[in-house]
């Protein structure tokens, strides 16, 4: 009888812990960044992909394994929003392009979060997701990222100062020797390295233009003047002329929605001399098309994510800092080797 009681208690603990495991986007939950480091885009919908969508599986922004460790954490969220105005982002180098694309993604302990998402990808694969064909040359090339985004849900975790930690997690924290790197790494695999502090879901449409250096400098100077002006003069089309460009990228949708991408390629075309090409600039000059696109964009992409190290799990500040130091040192090593 006693043995049966012990078994039932153990099963109850196991079920409780299993119930804390999720694969959706759960604010406050923890993930192990190293589990999919270099290819986090496999479990987060952040870039388009070169596959045919059969429409059978719904597109979800986030599917990484995560664990609930805080017993009573609270958060606030805002749902809804219309498509923002066009963003023109200047990127001096290929790495600038990646840093800019992932500028709304933060992983505490690294200054280059794009490495966690695409660090294991070869250059050719990365450029294809950006709609650009790799020509073997990255030096002396500049890029301009044009995008329109439509946020859907924004969530922010509240302060964790007085938040309780789940009992089984608290026991593991108390038993952890934070001075032993190997023990800390085993803890990471069980309970994670970072928690989800905030996120934004929605979708955005983007296009990359590969520029000659001279044309890029002219566009940058024009945008600086344009932003300072109060009149409505707009000569953007001139600075996106083929004369200044090395390559015009394909239009992509962050969620990978092939139906929306096909619509964009058909309707967002601009004439250039004897031929036409896809261009997001057409949205800037056509409110009707912008309105239609706003209706088409789904909520299938992750627009922003802020991950913070698990310091709040530890009541002992020194233990927290030792844990964070090992996590962040490992991140730097993985970043260099990715």
Automatic annotation (TrEMBL):
Native organism taxonomy: Eukaryota, Metazoa, Ecdysozoa, Arthropoda, Hexapoda
Highest taxon above the source species: Eukaryota
Protein name stated in the entry: Torso-like protein
Keywords on record: Signal
Region forming the signal peptide: 1-16
């Amino acid at each position: 009888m006693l043995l049966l009681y012990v078994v039932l208690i153990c099963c109850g603990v196991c079920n409780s812990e299993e119930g804390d495991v999720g694969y959706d986007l759960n604010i406050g939950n923890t993930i192990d960044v190293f589990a999919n480091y270099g290819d986090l885009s496999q479990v987060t919908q952040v870039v388009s992909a070169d596959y045919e969508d059969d429409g059978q599986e719904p597109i979800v922004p986030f599917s990484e394994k995560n664990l609930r460790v805080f017993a009573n954490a609270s958060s606030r969220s805002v749902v809804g929003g219309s498509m923002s105005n066009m963003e023109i982002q200047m990127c001096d180098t290929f790495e600038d392009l990646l840093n800019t694309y992932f500028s709304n993604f933060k992983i505490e302990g690294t200054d280059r979060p794009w490495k966690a998402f695409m660090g294991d990808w070869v250059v050719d694969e990365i450029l294809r997701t950006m709609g650009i064909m790799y020509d073997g040359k990255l030096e002396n090339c500049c890029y301009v990222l044009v995008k329109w985004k439509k946020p859907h849900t924004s969530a922010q975790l509240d302060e964790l100062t007085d938040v309780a930690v789940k009992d089984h997690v608290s026991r593991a924290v108390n038993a952890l020797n934070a001075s032993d790197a190997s023990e800390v790494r085993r803890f990471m695999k069980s309970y994670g390295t970072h928690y989800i502090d905030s996120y934004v879901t929605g979708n955005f449409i983007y296009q990359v233009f590969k520029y000659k250096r001279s044309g890029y400098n002219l566009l940058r100077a024009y945008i600086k003047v344009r932003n300072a002006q109060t009149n409505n003069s707009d000569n953007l089309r001139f600075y996106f002329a083929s004369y200044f460009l090395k390559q015009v990228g394909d239009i992509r949708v962050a969620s990978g929605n092939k139906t929306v991408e096909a619509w964009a390629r058909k309707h967002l075309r601009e004439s250039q001399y004897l031929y036409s090409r896809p261009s997001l600039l057409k949205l800037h000059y056509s409110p009707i098309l912008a309105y239609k696109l706003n209706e088409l964009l789904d909520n299938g992409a992750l627009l922003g994510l802020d991950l913070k190290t698990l310091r709040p799990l530890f009541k002992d500040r020194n233990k927290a800092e030792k844990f964070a130091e090992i996590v962040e040192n490992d991140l730097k090593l993985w970043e260099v080797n990715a």
